[in-house]
């Protein structure tokens, strides 16, 4: 059977749909928290006299998930390399979805005092723990089923879950903002996106329970027993690839969280831009990210995923130097162009990761290696970024935020150049 025929087979379409739907659900869950953190979690869950301090506290709770993600990568990677990709992906989806649903029922600080932010952070930890095993498994589900010459295009399919989940999450917040008064939204409207996550999780489970195990994992079982401790084997024999993969993925997180969570909070609080207007701008701008992801997948199959990532990180360095002037301009048109360019570049530092990271590791420890590298990069490039950017903007101006992005992207560039033979 030809590659094109294989790529269009019903079973392959189902596998790609399972990969896409799953990551869309996971990113929807993750993004509604990031949006709520930028808009309402500060005054609802954290006591403070200053709105900027409340926003910093809300961003700090956002970062809790990034601490949990490597732990989730370890646990889910362990079972993904021992019992298979399918069962592990189902478990990660249920944990992430259950944690998100529970946030809808949390009491606020006014009602429960300090118990409210503590419970919020515990559930945020559950979200991050589940996502720690999600992305790696979804990427392997796609790439390990890819026919020859299609790894880049198959690998970018789960990456498209990021813009799909973003549009669903922020689109819902936009609709609620239009239908509800600010008082209604603050009182109970913010809970609706968390409640609706149960519908999306059910859809994801329905699709994933119908898939089969990947050929690569089946081949591992035919060769002998899987590793008893995948993390030990990974760190003993593949620590250089793990370290390089971690730093190679930093840029995508830094670009994304600056152009979405930080930009939303800064625009609505510091610049005074209407929330509905800015959410609308971001929803349109995120389409440029989807285009970038799709183009990067095609380019990865032609010139190699590693090379596409190198070009993308160079563009991200330049973007870091241009994003600050765009946000400071005060012009909605200029800000929109800056966001669109940043998210388009994001597509080229994120889209190829689905093909590039799995290529760094053998199938025996691939789930663990991919998940650990991706989620450690999430801590370094994403978990600290909104807090650091908010502090830098408050005390030194947006130029320091741009330099922060340029430095983060430079770290990825160095790692990618060191591993360029793997691309």
Automatic annotation (TrEMBL):
Alphabetical UniProt keywords: Cell membrane, Membrane, Transmembrane, Transmembrane helix, Transport
One Gene Ontology cellular component: plasma membrane
CDD domains registered for this protein in UniProt: MFS_ShiA_like
Major facilitator superfamily (MFS) profile domain: residues covered: 15-423
Native source species: Sphingobium boeckii
PANTHER family per UniProt: INNER MEMBRANE METABOLITE TRANSPORT PROTEIN YHJE (PTHR43045:SF2), SHIKIMATE TRANSPORTER (PTHR43045)
Origin superkingdom: Bacteria
GO MF annotation: an example: transmembrane transporter activity
Localization (cell): Cell membrane
Name of the protein this chain belongs to: Metabolite-proton symporter
Parts of the chain that traverse the membrane: 30-48, 55-77, 89-109, 160-181, 187-207, 241-265, 277-296, 308-327, 333-357, 369-392, 398-419
InterPro entries documented for this protein: MFS_dom, MFS_sugar_transport-like, MFS_trans_sf
Membrane topology per record: Multi-pass membrane protein
């Amino acid at each position: 059977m030809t590659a094109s025929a294989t790529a269009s087979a019903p079973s392959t379409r189902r596998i790609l749909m399972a990969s896409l739907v799953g990551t869309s659900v996971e990113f929807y869950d993750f993004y509604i928290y990031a949006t709520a953190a930028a808009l309402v979690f500060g005054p609802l869950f954290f006591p403070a006299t200053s709105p900027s301090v409340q926003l910093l506290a809300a961003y700090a709770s956002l970062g809790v998930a990034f601490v949990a993600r490597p732990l989730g990568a370890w646990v889910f990677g362990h079972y993904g390399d021992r019992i298979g990709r399918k069962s592990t992906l189902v478990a990660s989806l249920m944990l992430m979805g259950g944690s998100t649903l529970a946030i809808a029922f949390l009491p606020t600080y006014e009602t429960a005092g300090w118990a409210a932010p503590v419970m919020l952070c515990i559930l945020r930890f559950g979200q991050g723990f589940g996502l720690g095993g999600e992305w790696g498994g979804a990427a392997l589900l796609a790439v390990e089923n890819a026919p020859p010459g299609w790894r880049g295009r198959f690998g970018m399919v789960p990456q498209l879950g990021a813009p799909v989940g973003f549009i669903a999450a922020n689109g819902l917040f936009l609709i609620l903002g239009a239908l509800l008064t600010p008082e209604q939204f603050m009182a109970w409207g913010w809970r609706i996106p968390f409640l609706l996550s149960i519908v999306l999780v059910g859809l994801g489970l329905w699709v994933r329970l119908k898939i089969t195990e990947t050929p690569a994992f089946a081949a591992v079982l035919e060769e002998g027993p899987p590793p008893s401790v995948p993390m030990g084997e990974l760190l003993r024999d593949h620590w250089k690839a793990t370290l390089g993969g971690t730093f190679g993925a930093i840029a995508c997180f830094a670009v994304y969280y600056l152009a979405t969570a930080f930009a939303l909070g800064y625009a609505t609080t510091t610049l005074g831009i209407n929330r509905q207007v800015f959410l609308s701008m971001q929803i349109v701008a995120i389409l440029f990210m989807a285009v970038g992801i799709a183009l990067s997948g095609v380019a990865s199959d032609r010139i190699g995923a590693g090379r596409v990532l190198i070009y993308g990180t160079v563009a991200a360095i330049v973007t870091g130097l241009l994003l600050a002037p765009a946000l400071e301009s005060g012009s909605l048109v200029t800000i929109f162009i800056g966001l669109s360019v940043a998210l388009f570049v994001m597509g080229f530092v994120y889209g190829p990761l689905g093909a590039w990271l799995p290529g760094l590791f053998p199938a025996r420890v691939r789930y663990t290696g991919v998940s650990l590298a991706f989620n450690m990069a999430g801590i370094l490039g994403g978990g600290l970024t909104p807090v650091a950017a908010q502090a830098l903007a408050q005390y030194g101006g947006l130029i320091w935020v741009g330099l922060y992005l340029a430095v983060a992207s430079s770290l990825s560039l160095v790692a990618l150049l060191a591993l360029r033979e793997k691309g």
